[in-house]
């Protein structure tokens, strides 16, 4: 029997929280004036961010392989680890942008449209991914595994793409800095 609390539709809350987080991120990254002090350790954050994205992508892949092998506990652990690495990425990314602001791409010629195609798809899908991750986690936490599986089929490839393209963007910026 389903309790009234567990049968409530979580989507309005998920969309509201996702919208608030997205609005905050847009303000933080593109509109807020960067912090005054630039510490030397700030320069290390882009590489750390790429590392967190790489680890998230690896955990997502391992979590997917685990669930395909019916190893639910292993799947759960890898997915929690992917979530933690993505959260650490976000904290580090916000810290970097607090001090540094937006990073313009200095590359010219044929590489410029390729970079922006990757970057724009990365940004758009990262915004879409946020409510999908919240919904996927909510369904798993409520043990509504049929709903969890339906949305996870879309969440996983988008989350994986965003994690991998985050690393690609890092290498583009590193190569043309």
Describe the structure.
Helix content is 79%, strand content 0%. With 177 residues, the protein is mostly helical. The protein has one domain. Helix 2 (11-31) runs antiparallel to helix 5, helix 3 packs antiparallel against helix 4 (72-100) and helix 3 packs antiparallel against helix 6. It starts with a helix and ends with a helix.
Q: Report the mean per-residue pLDDT as an integer.
A: 91
Regarding quaternary structure, what we see is: single chain
- Count of individual beta strands: 0
Uncertain segments of ≥5 residues (pLDDT<50)? none
- Our measurement of the CA-to-CA distance between the termini, rounded to an integer number of angstroms, reads 59 Å
Order of SSEs:
HHHHHH
The gross shape turns out to be globular
Strand content: under 5%
Structural class: mainly alpha
Largest sheet: none
Features:
79% helix; 177 residues; mainly alpha
SSE topology sketch:
Blueprint: H1 4-7, H2 11-31, H3 45-68, H4 72-100, H5 111-141, H6 145-175
Helix pairs in contact: 2-5, 3-4, 3-6, 5-6
């Amino acid at each position: 029997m389903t309790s009234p609390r567990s049968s409530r539709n979580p989507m309005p809350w998920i969309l509201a929280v996702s919208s608030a987080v997205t609005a905050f991120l847009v303000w933080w990254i593109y509109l807020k004036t960067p912090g005054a002090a630039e510490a030397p350790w700030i320069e290390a954050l882009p590489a750390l961010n790429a590392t967190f994205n790489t680890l998230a992508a690896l955990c997502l892949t391992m979590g997917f392989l685990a669930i395909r092998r019916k190893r639910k506990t292993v799947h759960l652990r890898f997915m929690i680890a992917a979530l933690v690495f993505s959260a650490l990425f976000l904290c580090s990314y916000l810290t970097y942008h607090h001090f540094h602001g937006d990073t313009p791409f200095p590359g010219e010629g044929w590489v410029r449209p390729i970079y922006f195609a990757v970057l724009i798809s990365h940004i758009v899908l990262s915004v879409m991914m946020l409510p999908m991750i919240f919904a996927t986690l909510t369904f798993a936490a409520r043990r509504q595994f049929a709903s969890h599986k339906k949305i996870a089929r879309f969440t996983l490839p988008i989350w994986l793409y965003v994690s991998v393209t985050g690393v690609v963007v890092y290498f583009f910026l590193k190569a043309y800095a």
